[in-house]
Every structure is written in structure tokens, then in C-alpha cells.
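Let us begin with a simple case.
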Amino acid sequence: MVENAQDISGSATRRHWYFAGFVAASVIVSWKVLTALVLFSLHEESSSHILLIPLISIYLLYVERKRISKFLRTGAIRHASLILAGALLFFLFIVGGFFADQASYLPVTISLLVVAWIGAFALFYGPSALLAAAFPLFFLLLMIPLPQSVLARSIYLLQSGSTDIAYFLFRIVGVPVFRQGFFLTVPGVTIEVATECSGIRSSVALFITCLLAAHLFLRTPWKQLLFVLLAFPLALIKNGIRIVTLTLLSIYVDPSFLTGSLHHKGGFAFFLLALAILAPVLLFLEKSERLQTPSIPVVPAKTEGGLSSS
């Protein structure tokens, strides 16, 4: 049964308190897991974004709260109780120490915690509100650390792709280059595109930036998907440009460029370069949506005498 506007307005505060109470209780129960997640994020380069994800999600929910509040409905229990109970029950088993695989401990426990939060949202606000808030809620999935096997494969693909791009760029600028695996030899120096040079942190940051920009500025699903997918080749191009730039600077300017601050802390500059490349693409897609939006003609209202009113 659909609630009327007065019922929705009267129960909104109560819903907020229920949901906030559930989240607070889950945080208390999973405090050790969340503490381990924070420490993992601070020490693991590929997961340095994790601490920002819940803050961004909360901000998006706040910004979109008026639109989401239009979809508050009753009858959510039958839609969310099973998924909520199952996630919480399994989560409590894992927190209780019944999960032996330490390598998968954080990915599994955080996954269940996020599923519990999403289920609680559906429980207290209704399935229609869940659909309206789908992006901010499912954005929380980025809190989940990548399993080691997935992370290792991702880093390998970044290494391989970045080496391909760097090799191609050396050929384009006319620098003699010999490639053997992840090693590139140019006159005067041989460099290795090691795991530390894969650019995993800036690649994740670029993906998250594209995801947020697509949600905030684009409305057509295929254009959103296209813009997000651009993050992957651009991450390789950006990293290839970084490798070539540092190598050429070390050859023609100063050898210390391969070991100096630009090498260790200059990733942000090349991240900005990637954003500069993406900006006109985003503007083009956004402009194309405005041009495709049909204008609704204004029909003048007629007065009693048959004349249109202005």
C-alpha cells in the first residue's frame, strides 16, 4: 500500500533514525574489521581510496535526498528482510572467527557489511527509494578491497599495457628502443616497468573520478558507460606518457629524474593530464545530451472570450 504525502512526511524522521541506528550498531559490531580496513587502506597503495568512499556516498545521498524522498514506500520488509538477515547472520559468523582464509577476510567481511547497509536501506525506505538511491548506495562497493588474485592480475595488465604504450611512444618520437618483457632499453639506460610503476593507485582514482563525473553530468546510460570505460585505456596512456617523460628527462636533462621526486611523487601531475584529456570528452557528451533534449512548446491558454492570454 502506498503512503500518502502526510504519512511519508511524518515517518521520514523515524526512518532516518532507524537506518542511522542500524548503521551505528553495525559499525560497533564490526569495529575490529573496520579498524583493520583503515590500517589496510593506509598501508596498501591500491586501496588508499577506501576511506573516501563512504564520505562520498553520504554526500551523494545528502545532495539527492529530495529526489530520493519522493519514492518512500511501505511494504519494504518483504523485499529486504531475507537479504538483510542472511547478510547479517553470515557476517556475524565471520566476525566471530569462523572464517579461516585470512587473504579473503577483509574482502568478504566488508562485502557483507555493505550488503547489510544496502538491505537496511531497502528495509527502512522501501525498494523504490533503493532504486532511486542506487548509485550512492552501490558506490559503497568500492570500499571492498580487491582480492589478492584480482589485484595481482590488474597490476599485471597495467604493467603490460603501460609497457606497450611506452614502447609505442618511444617509436613515435624517434627514440631507438628494444623491449624484452617489462624491460625497455633506450640509448644510455634500461628501465623496468615494475609493479610499483604500474600506476594502480592513480588508475583507481581515475576510474572513480570518471564514475562520479558520469553520474553527476550525464544522463544517457550508454554515454555514462562510454565515459567510465574511457578510464581504462586512458590509465594506460597516462602511465605510458609518464614512463617516457621520466626516461627522456633522465637521458637529456638529469639522470636523477628516474629516482627523484617526480618519479615517486609526480603521479598527480600526470593524473591531472588525464583529467585534461577527459574534460573535453565530458563536455562534448554533456552538450550532445542538451541538444538532444526536445523542447516542449508552450501553448497559450485561452481566455473566456476566445483570445489567448499572454
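The second case is a distinct protein. As before, the sequence precedes its C-alpha cells.
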Amino acid sequence: MFSRRLKWDSAPNPLSELLSRKRAQGDRILDLTESNPTHAGIVYPPLTFDDPRMMTYDPASFGLRAARERIAAEYRVDPDRVVLTASTSEAYSWLFKLLCDPGDEVLVPTPSYPLFDYLAALESVTVKPYHLRYHEGWFVDLDAITITDRTRAIVVVNPNNPTGSYLKAAELEALLELARRHDLALISDEVFSDYQLQQGGVTSLLRVEDVPTFCLNGLSKLVGLPQMKLGWIIANHRPSLDRLELIADTYLSVGAAVQCSVDKLLALKPAVQGQIMDRVHRNLATLKPARTVEGGWYAVLQVPRIRTEEEWVVGLLEQHNVLVQPGYFYDFETEAFLILSLLTAPAIFSEGLVLIE
């Protein structure tokens, strides 16, 4: 009676089973995966939500004009290019609906965000990976990218999660040329773009003009407030916006309260981002050697291949109560890599790192 879009009976992996047992028995876990800023000790200024507009239902397909204008001012773009969504995940679902028929495909980077398979499958869309390679930094393997007659879009995560790498100028131009030649769109996930740690990469695709491009961001990372459930798409292509309006109008998913509070919430950027950047720098300074991190708040740690990644992460949790993620969660092609969140409280990060090393 159920659709075949997802494997609904997915069993828990050994790491999650062990973690559940240890938490149930009260063990102290050194969690080096904490990526939720509201659980990571970030201090938020007090907020009040008392705008009388919250009590009036005034639906608008792309979101309330005042909220869109405030976001547009943040990026110095036309408000008519801004589409509000409840999250970046919802933005992906709308764009897959917009660009793809069932069975079409989108190119996504690997290693990268582990939810692409699910988001695409729920829209009956296929993901096709293109690879990032490491050589004193992460680079797109442009020669290995293949386009078929079912390819509709190229997704870039900029900076990438978890590699922390930005697109390079030459890589962007190569992807734009592919998009022009094959009539493709670009989807640029820029949720970590404010957290730049090194110079040299392309930090945003907002200024792309001649290829249909959709830049995604939201409050979750920008001001460390995932519970506020506000994301946005900034599009550069009028025909796409015309069609996207029908999709947005079908859902009208963004609540009035968060839209009316956008100005207050974006005003938190200096305080919240300052704390996050300080923490990321402090933790990164203790992580030597680590693969180059250009942005974001994750780090990739290569460990000896004396055991599998699963043996590494299960062993660390079993023997030392240290929780890290394996590279295969993010589709790393080779072993052995551990993924650590630089948002972890520094005392916990340092204590856990000593036990890993």
C-alpha cells in the first residue's frame, strides 16, 4: 500500500544502536558531531515576537513583501528574485518539482550532504554524483562529469558539507559552460557561505546572469536558528520564477510569525556568527593535521587504515565514549575518514580529540 520512493524499513546502523544503548545506561558521551547551534552553547540575545501583523492571515505566494525586501537588502538583489520557503530542504523539493519530471536526474557532489538521496527520491528524481578530489585542497573532478538526456540541474554545495571547500573560479566557469551547452540549471546551496575561513574561493553564485541559477540559504545556519524554519531561494531567471510561483502558492508553508520577525532575526547575525566563528577557529587550531577547511563548521580527519571506518567510530564510542561520524555517511569513496563538528564546545572537542589521537 506504500510508495516505493524510499526504503521505509531502513534498519538502524551499528553506531546509532550503540549510541542508544550508551545513552540509555547514562554514559557521558563526548559528542564531536554536535552541529545544532541551539544545543552547542551559543548565547542568543532575548527576542520578543509581538508584531500585530502575526495575527492576520495575508498569504503571498513568495512570502510577505516586507520579509522578502529585508532579505533582498541583505544580498543587494531585487526582492522579486526572493522566494521564501520553510527550509532549505523544502527549497530543494520545490526546485526538483520545477525542473524535473519523474525519472530525470540531478548532479550532486560527493562527498556531501547525506540527505540528497532522500530529497530527490521523494520527488521521483534520481541523483547522479560528481566527485570532489583532494590534492592539498578539494577540487571538482570536472573530467569525470557526465551529462545525459535526463540531466536537468547541477547542485553545488558552497562551501561543501563536510569538506568545507568553496568552488574555484575556474570550476564555476566550467560548470556554467556545461549548463549553457546542455540547457541545465544550477542550484547553489550557500547555507554555510558566511563562515569563510580562507580566501580564494567563489563564495556565492548570486551574480551569475546567463544560466538559470537558484541560490539557497536560511536562518538555520545564517543566525544559528534552525527551529525558526525560514529559508529562501534567490533566483535569476524570470520564466522559472513564474512557474515557481504556482508551486509556492500551492503550499504557502512559511508561518507569519517568522516572516514578520525577519528584521529582528537577521539583526542577530553579528552576535551569533561571531560566537560561531570564534568556536570554529579555536577547535580548528587544535586539529592538526586536518584536511584543508575553507569554510563552514565541519572538519575531515584522515585516520590510518588499520581498521574500517565503522570499526573506528564504533571502537571510539565503545572504548572511549567519543562520538564522531564516519566518512561513508557522506559518501566518501575511500577510507578512513572521520567527520567532526567544529561547533562542538571546545573543552569537549579537545578532550575527545586526545582520545582519538
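The mean pLDDT is 95. Residues 14-43+269-356 form a domain with the Aspartate Aminotransferase, domain 1 fold (CATH 3.90.1150.10).
Keep these points in mind for the review questions at the end of the chapter.
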